Amino acid sequence: MKKILIIEDDLSIAELQKDYLEVAGFTVKISPDGRKGLRDLQQDDYDLVILDIMLPGMDGLEILRQIRAEKDIPVLLVSAKKEEIDKIKGLSLGADDYITKPFSPGELVARVKAHLAKYERLTQRFSNIPDSRQVLTIRGLKIDKASRRVFVNEAEVNLAQKEFELLHFLAQHPNRVFGREELFERIWGLDSLGDSATVTVHIARIREKIESDPSNPQYIETVWGAGYRFRV
After folding, report:
1. Which of these, 115, 109, 113, 106, lies nearest to 192 by C-alpha position?
2. Which of 24, 54, 64, 173 is the most exposed place for a label (fewest CB within 10 A)?
């Protein structure tokens, strides 16, 4: 059974989510504050996290940063904040989805199932790639698809899940130009919240981590008026 961690300080909401998810066949644990939620994540293995942003003890976005530094599992952000900038910020930090309160428990269950299925397809696809194609190496940049790790001149850099997927996708299609909308659809999916502006944020974060001079990138180039290209 898939294990889900709900980090939510409103226990009435958390218990309702838990009930619906358990009926759907999941094992669910509730953490009522940020620090306890982070400890639970570090002490046990979970397949997906439902994370509120406004939490006592530790902000949900800070928890998300630490999750992405250590784990590669789907994270669904939940918040009463409906402004576009809040959604973009959450997605840019590596969240897989952003759900605004109030929402139906049935919708939550559907999104949980969709993200778990997508994650399983992705990991299965990587595991089926022959060993000789597991690692891409381009001018000091090494992308290990099996372990989902990235190295620059042998030094490992930590990428959030969507950052890795975006970099890996572009590197798999060298010298081809992709528009922001197409990249958003391919990496986030047509049903994801947010818009193509989050692609720009992710590209900037990737450049900060892999480029020696992010203002003059050697890997991911901007093709003005068209989109982005991985140069080889």
Report:
1. 115
2. 173
Portions of the chain given CATH number 3.40.50.2300: 3-126
Alpha helices in 24-104 (DSSP H): 34-43, 60-70, 84-92
Distance CA 142, CA 95 (A): 24
Per the CB < 8 A criterion, the answer to whether 49 and 79 are in contact is no
The answer to whether 4 touches 28, Cβ cutoff 8 Å, is: yes
Q: Are 208 and 163 in contact (CB under 8 A)?
A: no
Q: Does domain 3-126 have CATH number 3.40.50.2300?
A: yes
Q: Judge contact between 59 and 34, C-beta under 8 A.
A: yes
Radius of gyration of the chain (CA): 18
In 3D, which of 130, 193, 136 has the Cα closest to residue 164? 136
Digitized pLDDT (tens) for each residue of the chain, 232 residues in all: 899 999 999 999 999 999 999 999 999 999 999 899 988 988 888 999 999 988 888 888 889 888 877 777 889 998 887 777 777 878 877 888 888 888 888 999 999 999 898 888 766 654 554 444 568 888 889 998 878 889 999 899 999 888 999 999 999 888 888 888 888 888 877 555 556 678 888 999 999 999 999 989 999 999 888 889 998 7
